[in-house]
Amino acid sequence: MSIKAGDKIPAATLKIMGSEGPEDITTEAIFSGKTVLLFAVPGAFTPGCSVTHLPGYVVNADKIKAKGVDTIACMAVNDAFVMDAWGKSQNAEELMMLGDGNGDFTKALGLELDGRGFGLGMRSQRFAMLVKDGTITHLNVEPGPGISESSAETMMKLL
Fold this sequence. Notes:
Strand order of the largest sheet: 5-4-3-8-9
Enzyme class: oxidoreductase
Keywords: Antioxidant, Oxidoreductase, Peroxidase, Redox-active center
Strand content: 25-35%
GO molecular function, one term: thioredoxin peroxidase activity
Oligomer: single chain
Radius of gyration: 14 Å
Order of helices and strands: EEHEHEHEHEEEEH
EC number: 1.11.1.27
Largest sheet: 5 strands, mixed
Function: Thiol-specific peroxidase that catalyzes the reduction of hydrogen peroxide and organic hydroperoxides to water and alcohols, respectively. Plays a role in cell protection against oxidative stress by detoxifying peroxides.
Distance between the termini: 26 Å
Structural class: alpha/beta
CATH architecture: 3-Layer(aba) Sandwich
Mean pLDDT: 94
CATH class: Alpha Beta
C-alpha cells in the first residue's frame, strides 16, 4: 500500500556522500521542522532521469527555494557513490542527493518499481512529494513512463 498525502514520513536511514565517504542520514534529520521537496527516480544516469527529471530541479532550484522550500532532495535506489557522481555530473550542488541503496525507504513508502524486465531489479517509482515537518502534503506519482506529474514545473505550481 502506497503512502499518501496526510501521512507521516516513515522512519528510515538513507545515505549521502560526506567529506570522508558515505554517511547515514535519517528521515527525521531530513524532514523534521523543514519543508522538503523530495523527488525520486528509477535510476541515476538513466536517460529520462538525466535529460529531463533532475535537470528540471537543478535549473529551478533557486525559484523553488524562494517559494519556501528548505531542501530539494533527489532519491534513487542507488548507492551514495553513484548519487554523488550523478549529482556532480549534473551540477546539482543545490540538491541533497540521497541513496536508498537497499530500497528500504522506497519499500516503506510503498512506491517500489519492479525493473527486472530492464535488468534493474527493484527500484523506485518516479514520484515527487512535498513534505512539511515530516507530513506529506502532496504526492505525485507518475502513472507510467514519462515525466509530467513529478516534474519540477508541476511541483512548483503546488508551492
